[in-house]
Amino acid sequence: MRVATLLCLATILAGAAAGAELATKKALTLEIARGMAAAGEEFARKNGWKVAIAIVDEGGYLIYFQRMDGAPLSAVDLANRKARTAAIFGRPSKAYNERIQQGETGVVAIPGVLPFEGGLPIVHEGQVLGAIGVSGVTSQQDGMVAQAGVDAFARMVGK
Question: N or C: at which end does the chain have fewer Cβ atoms within 10 angstroms?
Fold first, then answer.
């Protein structure tokens, strides 16, 4: 009886595997990343701000980076870390600052979290494709520049 059960199970599993399909995965392109950064830069220039802008994939790995002339050197690392936070955790980096302000100080112990505004996930059809991170001015202003980049993404993909 055991052998018959195992053979039956093996047949079922083989049939399920034969019909398995790979998922179709959307991904950010260099062209889209450049367009997002350009929109962020344009918004920053109109306001007289000098920032660094990082665009990362869903794993937090850099796709595109630019630092405007005169942007602080510290903005390089901070923009990347804000983007990575937003991509890996799928929420704005600002959300972690809000949790800290509500008394959840343990948030600072979460590896990879940078709890400052300026990192926004890039979401398409419910899937996080990556994130944009901005640094160089105040956290709120960084967030506004990042939002300009996300808005450009929405225009580029038609949503």
Answer: N
In the structure encoding, which two tokens stand for residue 96, read together?
Answer: 């972690």
CA angle 66, 69, 73 (to 5 degrees): 75
* Pair 99, 106: CB distance under 8 Å: no
Query: Hey, which residues does 135 pair with through a beta bridge?
Result: 52
Q: Which CATH number does 26-157 carry?
A: 3.30.450.150
- For 146, phi then psi, to 5°, come to -60, -40
* φ/ψ of residue 81, rounded to 5: -70, -35
Q: How much is the pTM?
A: 0.85
Q: Give the distance from CA 136 to its chain's centroid.
A: 18
